[in-house]
Amino acid sequence: MGVILFDLEEIPLPNFVNALDAWYTVFICVTQDGWADLLETFLNTGKEQNYDKLLVIYLLIAVSAGGFVFANLIVAVIVTNLEMAVKEFRDEKAMSDNPLEFHKDYSASEVEILPVHELLANNNTALLAQRPFKIPSLKKFSLRRLQAYIALIVALEHNMLEAEIIHLDLEKVMAVILTTMAQVRIKRIR
């Protein structure tokens, strides 16, 4: 816009000769670093042809609008980063409050899965090598709750075995479908 308004032969300004110089002038206005020197240059340059008021109005609009947008952009970035940091802090605090909860950082490939009967067996080095993240308080732990946890683990193990059986059955069905499709393609080719 500055190139269109102020690229006149009557105004010997180097700030609006081409688009790159005009963008540099707008950048100075937005960052508000050195805009006073630009104001002085505009005042001294445009006095002969009475363009100084128009140049000053353009500069003040660019400084105030650009500074407002730039300041709000910085505030928006800081607020967004602060919100993300607070959410991450709350998530970490929630994870540390419940030591028995699984952490999202661990994948199933990193954890060795053992059946319950092997886990409860004597001389289990995998069980002895594991250390809890935080030692839980067992004040409210009862025999009834222990039985419920063991029943849950046994049920989960049973469901995992059934899921494996279903997976194997699905693989067999898929193999039959693929061989049937291959036979159909062979018959179509003949």
UniProtKB/TrEMBL annotation:
Q: Which UniProt keywords apply?
A: Membrane, Transmembrane, Transmembrane helix
Topological type in the membrane: Multi-pass membrane protein
InterPro entries in UniProt: CatSper4, Ion_trans_dom
Ion transport domain residues are: 9-85
Where, per UniProt, does this protein localize? Membrane
Major place of residence = membrane
Where are the membrane-spanning stretches?
55-80
The protein, known as = Ion transport domain-containing protein
